[in-house]
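Worked example

This section walks through a single chain of length 204. The input is the sequence exactly as stored; nothing has been trimmed or padded.
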Amino acid sequence: MSDAAWNELAPNRDQQRQLKRMAVLRTGARLFADQGFDRTSLDDIAAALNVSKRTLYYYVKNKEEILFESHRIGADFMAETMAKAASQDLSALERIEIIMRSYMGWLTDEFGACLVLADDAVLPEKSRQILREGRKKLDFAVRDLLREGMADGSIKTCDPKLTAAAIFGAFNWVPHWKKRGDEADYAMIADQFLNIFLDGLRAR
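Given that input, the structure is written out below as tokens.
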């Protein structure tokens, strides 16, 4: 990002600060996903943004804050997706499909990739607990939909915990071997994965 682009992100001061903070978070998330948290310094992030390291401290306290906020943004996005998939007019399988397609799309974003590629073990326990709760909600939402489908006969009998783990395990592995995938690539992979999982879950 050039100095001009950095200075012209938004017309007023509050908007500029918010957008510049988001640029710092997004750049940090991208570098954490690409080269790892430990191998990324604030100097690297500042260089990628073409600003001084001192400038970064106006928007974040440290690398750990960038990592925490990057993970939190991912959890917030998936909470919105779960709300969209809550329609009772759709079957349990259809709602699982909505959630997982959105999840795969999210993995093409810097924050989504960071969510699965950058370990949060470096964060304080309180911060890790907050992030864990966000991830649990998504996992439990899929488990609940599996139970709902089994109850109404649309999903064959399965272990919800193991089935959800298998689905997320497959999706979460994609950024490890296809870090540079674009939305079309990931959408194609989502099609293939969902064909396998949904067909396997559908009651005959």
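What to look for: The mean pLDDT is 88.
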